[in-house]
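Quick one, probably user error.
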């Protein structure tokens, strides 16, 4: 598993966001949750935070399109002066991937993109660095391969999205840190690890490529397209791409915990060679936009899930597109299995309709899931537990087990309280 991640506006848009933020600041206090029926969720999160020493958690649950639970726990700042509310925003890391996947599927639905189109043929403006030649297998990589992590990239040993921020910039003659496009050019000059379409192997880089494909096919910056065509129609108004430096933290964004046993890290910035925390300069948020860059409230994520094969009136994708998106890939390792990674989602038939986890060392963890019985769930943390496998198992699976045990949810809808 990688140390970095696993299973990242226009002026008018920014102004609108600031206006909406101020309206929330000026609004009266809204309820977080009512009713005894959700006490098991409260108890689980309290125990989870205590076990893993998590400073800040926020969670949301919707039932049949109604927000029935939205609550923050702990403190939004590491000095412990600001209580977390359901209105605080968190980095969501790889839980960004389904958002990018839905953006791609919207282009497919509109006939502007084909899943089996060669991906790199769409990016002639991002050639390999001078003196480098492409691996001939690169021409085989399709949009489908990138969505299902079968593109031929192996990030289990090194992840260019995090580990090539110096070398990629140097290779193309740009200032450090490398941009998402610099990283694509750099990787385009390296050999593939395996034949595309032959197996699943998780790759952040593949979703970087998908972000650039969205830009080519839409004629818009990746973030602008997602906000206009995916998040806006889902009534999600407060998700934004994150920024690296602490002084650029977004309004109502929590602070992120870092390993106190490693007080300094090499910075990705040339003018700031050592940073105090990995979360604020050990990697570049701007370079991981399409695979790990979004910052959101958990209730934004349940809104998004409600608009993808959910219970809201405005569905982003047609049923046949959703069916294709959640189908089992034609890969030998999945043959006969009811657990697989589809086009942007973890699927466990009979248990989880669609889900994803996200993590950034050491200050970010998230999970989102659509469950049977009309339930959607999202939970975000500002710390990643040391025992990573056990931590993720608890975050992604124990939480779902608890939610499924709740037999009676409140009949209110808190979405109206959170624009």
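Nope, works fine. Designed sequence:
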């Amino acid at each position: 598993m990688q140390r970095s991640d696993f299973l990242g506006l226009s002026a008018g848009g920014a102004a609108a966001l600031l206006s909406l933020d101020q309206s929330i600041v000026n609004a009266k206090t809204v309820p977080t949750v009512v009713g005894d029926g959700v006490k098991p969720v409260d108890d689980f999160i309290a125990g989870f935070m205590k076990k893993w020493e998590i400073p800040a958690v926020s969670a949301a649950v919707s039932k049949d399109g109604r927000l029935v639970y939205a609550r923050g726990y702990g403190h939004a700042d590491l000095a412990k002066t600001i209580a977390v509310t359901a209105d605080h925003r968190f980095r969501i890391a790889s839980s960004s991937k389904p958002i990018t996947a839905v953006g791609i599927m919207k282009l497919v639905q509109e006939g502007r993109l084909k899943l089996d189109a060669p991906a790199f043929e769409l990016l002639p403006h991002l050639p390999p660095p001078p003196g480098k030649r492409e691996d001939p297998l690169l021409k085989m990589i399709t949009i489908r391969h990138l969505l299902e992590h079968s593109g031929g990239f192996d990030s289990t040993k090194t992840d260019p999205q995090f580990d090539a921020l110096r070398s990629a910039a140097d290779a193309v003659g740009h200032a450090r840190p490398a941009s998402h496009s610099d990283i694509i050019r750099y990787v385009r000059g390296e050999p593939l690890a395996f034949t595309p379409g032959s197996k699943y192997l998780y790759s952040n880089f593949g979703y970087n490529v998908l972000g650039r494909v969205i830009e080519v096919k839409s004629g818009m910056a990746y973030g602008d397209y997602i906000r206009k065509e995916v998040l806006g129609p889902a009534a999600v108004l407060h998700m934004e791409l994150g920024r690296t430096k602490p002084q650029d933290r977004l309004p109502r964004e929590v602070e992120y915990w870092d390993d106190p046993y490693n007080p300094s890290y090499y910075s990705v910035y040339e003018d700031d060679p050592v940073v105090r925390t990995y979360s604020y300069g050990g990697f570049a948020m701007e370079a991981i936009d399409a695979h790990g860059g979004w910052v959101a409230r958990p209730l934004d994520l349940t809104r998004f899930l409600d608009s993808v094969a959910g219970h809201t009136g405005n569905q982003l994708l047609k049923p046949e597109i959703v069916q294709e998106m959640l189908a089992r890939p034609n890969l030998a390792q999945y043959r006969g299995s009811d657990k697989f990674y589809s086009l942007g989602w973890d699927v466990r038939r009979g248990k989880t309709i669609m889900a994803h986890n996200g993590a950034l060392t050491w200050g970010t963890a998230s999970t989102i899931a659509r469950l049977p019985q009309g339930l959607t769930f999202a939970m975000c943390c500002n710390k990643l537990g040391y025992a990573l496998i056990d931590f993720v198992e608890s975050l992604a699976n124990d939480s779902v087990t608890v939610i499924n045990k709740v037999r009676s949810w409140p009949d209110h809808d808190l979405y109206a309280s959170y624009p």
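The chain has one domain: 11-114+222-417.
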